[in-house]
Specification:
Blueprint (H helix, E strand, L loop, with lengths): L1 H28 L4 H14 L12 H10 L6 H9 L4 E9 L6 E9 L11 E9 L4 E2 L3 H4 L3 E5 L4 E8 L18 H36 L4 H15 L2 H14 L19 H21 L1 H17 L2 H8 L4 H18 L14 H6 L5 H10 L3 H29 L7
Antiparallel strand pairs: 1-6, 2-3, 3-4, 5-6
Length: 418
């Protein structure tokens, strides 16, 4: 079994590479990305208005510098390797255009200082130098020069000067958001507390309610309790969460003022006491939680009920009762243990609570969570943020599947993975 789980962990790597490579390829061909937006913004700043041909007034060097800044100056595979962190990124890239008759041009070089050397006004070490037409770089400060490389481009009468640095996903760098100019990792981490709160509450509430309810429905099959609860859970299952949220906002929040209409906390949350903060969070969470839970109740409840009914009709349960076991012991000691195994397979989804969130529900209640961040990254064509969210999703889903296998093997001694 140990070898099986080692193989499963190792499979995370090619799965993540395959998924991210497909999405990365899509970002290279879909129009309207950050490069086009930057060109459009530059043109609007210059002309004071829009244009159908974004970037038409920008020089070739300006367009290439923009492409280099957003990582669109490389073919697909090198660009993906740069994002992954196995190929050096060309940072601080600039094109030095040579004038006719000149064999050297001035260049300004800057390198990021170690964090302990940062000041309140500067974090870079800047040095003036010269670059030769054939690519030689000279500067008084050799410590700065050694960090840079050059690439002569005689056909364009210029030299590219850049700082090669391996800094990608494998080094913990998810990149900068092209829309907000913030670190992608920081943006995702800032949304996780909201996702954890709603994800964990939804997860545990669903299991605490649905498992006992499924057991009760199986034992009281076709009784008034079973029929009444079936009607309720299937009506809830038939109502989309976003529709229920819209109705709740109108009738339970706006008209009656029983609950807040939006947000995760109140505006004066920071000035509240600890007890007041807890109450404020729970007060805001009631309506969104109802919308999150309404869809999962039917699935878990009926899964528990149907599995328990199948096991109650099995020969080993009848044999246990025939040998003198009480009905309660036969249900709880024999049938329930086997019926809980399919439920255990769904427990691995707890790993995804870090990125839990419904786009529509969060938009209705104006909750700034992970779901809203995901849809914003897609609509804004914020490719670094899209790739960061996708990578995190893939890893968590794979870990959840492995956790499900482990829980099944722990619960059912008959299961042996080879």
């Amino acid at each position: 079994m140990r070898d099986y789980f080692i193989r499963r962990f190792l499979l995370i790597i090619p799965t993540m590479i395959g998924a991210t490579m497909v999405v990365f390829a899509i970002t290279r061909v879909v129009p309207g990305g950050p490069l086009e937006k930057a060109m459009q913004q530059a043109l609007m700043n210059e002309r004071g208005g829009g244009s159908k041909n974004a970037g038409s007034s920008l020089s070739e060097e300006q367009r290439e510098e923009l492409a280099a800044y957003y990582g669109f100056d490389k073919p697909f595979f090198p660009a993906y390797c740069i994002w992954l962190g196995i190929w050096p990124r060309e940072e601080n890239k600039q094109f030095i255009k040579f004038e006719d008759g000149k064999d050297e041009m001035p260049v300004s070089l800057q390198i990021l200082l170690p964090r302990e050397q940062w000041t309140a006004t500067n974090a870079y070490k800047v040095s003036a130098g010269t670059v030769k037409r054939y690519g030689s770089l000279l500067a008084p400060d050799t410590d700065v020069v050694q960090h840079f490389k050059t690439r002569a481009e005689p056909d364009k009468n210029r030299v590219a000067v850049f700082h090669p640095h391996i800094n990608g996903l494998l080094q913990g760098n998810f990149g900068l958001s092209t829309s907000y100019n913030l670190r992608v990792l920081d943006m995702m981490l800032s949304k996780m507390p909201v996702s954890l709160f709603y994800g964990l509450l939804t997860f545990f509430t669903a299991y605490v309610v649905c498992v006992p309810l499924g057991i009760l429905k199986a034992i009281k099959h076709r009784s008034v309790i079973d029929n009444a609860t079936s009607i309720l859970i299937f009506v809830g299952y038939a109502i989309p969460g976003f529709l229920l949220g819209s109705l709740m906002v109108v009738y339970l929040a706006a008209r009656t003022d029983w609950f807040p209409t939006e947000g995760f906390t109140s505006e004066d949350f920071a000035s509240m006491s600890i007890g007041g903060k807890i109450w404020d969070i729970l007060h805001h969470a009631v309506l969104p939680l109802c919308c999150y839970l309404v869809g999962s109740f039917a699935f878990l409840t009926m899964l528990m009920k149907n599995n328990l009914m199948d096991n109650l009709a099995a020969d080993y349960v009848r044999t246990a009762i025939a040998k003198g076991s009480s009905y309660r012991h036969a249900v709880l000691g024999h049938a329930l243990r086997n019926s809980i195994i399919p439920i255990v397979t769904t427990l691995g989804s707890i790993t995804t609570v870090f990125v839990a969130g419904s786009v529509l529900i969060e938009r209705i209640f104006q909750i700034d969570g992970f779901g809203l961040l995901t849809i914003q990254s897609i609509t804004d064509r914020d490719y670094p943020l899209v790739m960061g969210i996708l990578t995190l999703d893939v890893v968590l889903i794979m870990l959840g599947n492995i956790l499900s296998d482990y829980l099944v093997a722990t619960t059912d001694p008959r299961v042996r993975f080879n």
